[in-house]
Design goal:
Mean pLDDT: 79
Number of domains: 2
CATH class of the largest domain: Alpha Beta
Shape: globular
Distance between the termini: 37 Å
Strand order of the largest sheet: 8-7-6-10-13-14
Number of helices: 11
Number of strands: 14
CATH topology of the largest domain: Rossmann fold
Order of helices and strands: EEEHEHHEEHEEHHEEEHEHEHEHH
Structural class: alpha/beta
Low-confidence stretches: 1-78, 360-364, 372-376
Largest sheet: 6 strands, mixed
Helix content: 25-40%
CATH superfamily of the largest domain: von Willebrand factor, type A domain
Radius of gyration: 20 Å
CATH architecture of the largest domain: 3-Layer(aba) Sandwich
């Protein structure tokens, strides 16, 4: 094993609780499990200081370990933003977790339930949204990223849909790999801010088997309430205010896809949203204003999942169409989810190449400008 030291820039108020099997990685910070093992020699400090002259706040966090096997990707396996998805990694990972992978790359869900597929029984610390910033960084291995946030409704009625996503994750990513798209995936679990214990769960942006690892950490709470909507726009909120995207420097936006079976929520409640995220809010976050804000950074799609009697189908169409046009609002059955997700990502990538998914030059709200200035 070879040890490497890493320095990071961060605002002093940012904190981290995320963990990985080998290292704790969040906000671009790497921390060794044993804090006493942190060592920094003077040569490393001088080299790093040269590259940090423009940064107001930085900390030398410590050391972390990287693999030195023959596989060139393995050296970066535990570095956030590095790595490639490989079918053999997924098959090995699934087998370790007692799952059978079919020849087509999908998981055999015979005898499975949503509780056996999603084994979390409370929110995993790695997915806690409080005081976090998720970064999609570009590097020599991923120079032209397309950040994709896939946000799943994890309330009670969406069990079959959530199983479909887990079962066909490998199939979706393998298809996308064949398009030469440089995709970084974030997985989110979305519940109801008014009723649920874990209404927002948010992973890192990843490009390798850690996508599956973090999907498995999602806590399928199975909650929701009687208000006829879930907090879908929490995905927009976290994307707009709790992510940093290198692709924006190239004039390219990321992509948010929410999946659910209920109408669009009209707002995010101030109290519970502030408690969950750690943000100081002046009032409820209205959906229309949030949509204009998030569009500066992301293309936004919603997939309404049709199952059972589709109780909310007509109303969902009516409410979502107040914000999203026909192209950005899709309807599909449970067994069509993987195809719908693949098509949206492919179409968005092609649109970006043709200049259709570039950054929107909309003026930022005054409070957003102030927040950006304060963060520096």
């Amino acid at each position: 094993m070879r040890k490497m030291m890493r320095a990071v820039c961060r605002a002093p108020e940012m904190t981290s609780t995320a963990s990985d099997t080998s290292a704790h990685v969040q906000h671009g910070m790497c921390m060794n499990r044993n804090a006493n093992a942190a060592t920094v020699n003077s040569r490393s400090l001088r080299a790093l200081s040269a590259g940090l002259t423009a940064c107001r706040h930085f900390q030398i966090i410590g050391t972390y370990e990287t693999r030195t096997a023959e596989d060139p990707h393995s050296q970066r396996r535990y570095s956030m933003g590095y790595g490639r998805w490989r079918d053999e990694d997924f098959r090995t990972y699934a087998g370790r977790n007692g799952r059978k992978v079919r020849k087509d790359g999908t998981i055999d869900t015979a005898g499975e339930t949503v509780q056996s597929m999603y084994r979390g029984r409370t929110i995993d610390p790695a997915l806690d949204p409080k005081n976090v910033i998720r970064e999609c960084c570009e590097n020599e291995e991923h120079p032209n990223t397309l950040p994709v946030i896939l946000a799943l409704d994890v309330t009670g009625s969406m069990g079959r849909a959530a199983m479909e996503v887990a079962a066909k994750l490998n199939e979706v990513i393998i298809k996308l790999l064949g398009t030469d798209m440089d995709i970084e995936f974030m997985v989110m679990g979305i519940g109801d801010l008014a009723y649920d214990r874990a209404p927002i769960q948010i992973s890192q942006f990843e490009s390798d088997i850690r996508i599956a690892e973090q999907l498995d950490k999602i806590y399928f709470e199975g909650g929701g309430g009687g208000n006829s909507f879930e907090s879908y726009t929490a995905a927009w909120y976290m994307g707009a205010r709790h992510t940093k995207l290198d692709c924006l420097k190239r004039g390219r936006r990321g992509l948010i896809i929410t999946l659910g079976d209920e109408p669009l929520n009209p707002y995010l409640p101030k109290g519970s949203l502030a408690e969950v995220t750690g943000d100081a809010l002046q009032g409820d976050v209205e959906t229309k204003a949030l949509f204009h804000e998030v569009r500066n950074m992301y293309e936004v799609y919603h997939i309404h999942v049709i199952h059972g009697s589709d109780f909310y189908g007509d109303r969902a169409n009516h409410e979502w169409r107040k914000i999203l046009d026909k192209n950005h609002l899709r309807f599909c059955k449970v067994n069509e989810i993987s195809s719908a997700v693949t098509k949206i990502i492919t179409d968005t990538a092609n649109g970006a190449e043709n200049g259709e998914a570039t950054v929107q030059q909309e003026p930022k709200p005054v409070m957003r400008v102030l927040r950006d200035l304060i963060s520096w």
